[in-house]
Amino acid sequence: MFSFEPYECTMTTDFVFKLETDPVPIVLSLYTTLKHALSNPAYAALARSIDGCFSIASTRDPQSATITLKGNQIDIHHGVSDKAKITINLDLSRMSEEGYRPSVKGLLRHPFFAYRVGRLLNFPATSWADDAKRFWDSTQFLPYMPKAIKFTSTDKQQHLSFGNGPTDVEICGKSKVLSSMLTGSSILVEDIIAGRIQIIGSLKHLSVLSEATLKMKLGELGHE
Description:
single chain, Nonspecific Lipid-transfer Protein, Chain A, 2 domains, seven-stranded mixed sheet, four-stranded mixed sheet
């Protein structure tokens, strides 16, 4: 049972989020990702079709959260709820990884609910180029950001450059991985350690860019 006093944050005219008063990082991260995904009409229709509660628990650390959907209202709180129909145990850093399959407690009791939640967590693909532009627009004025940055999609063989002057940093990766990082679904330094993204640049710029992706993840920077 949760005893937090909620506050409301209106996302659009259609959806209202309720979060606990002092949201922990996993709650803010899920809020940011869902808010971004709900701009897709088909995804929004899927969210409205789900009625119930499910929990997400990290397999790498103690982080966990519970999401309750009912109509146009989405409640997100930290912790695993005993009211959850299913609990999904997963590596949060691999949520966007193609082919990754987490374990699901309660799957046999609630197979159709689990199927719909699985679709909900398969966030809609976005244009990596649009995500790169939004990222640059949101972060270019942060202290110590590189003056010029180049993004390279290795699977689509496409390049995008932002800023002025010689390129300070080049970031390379598959388009889906780039989108994940640029929209705050993952953090740059974690993607680099996992081998999903490569970077050419200084440690100083790696640090500031990783902090920028963390700010995106926590909803501290807009990416509408």
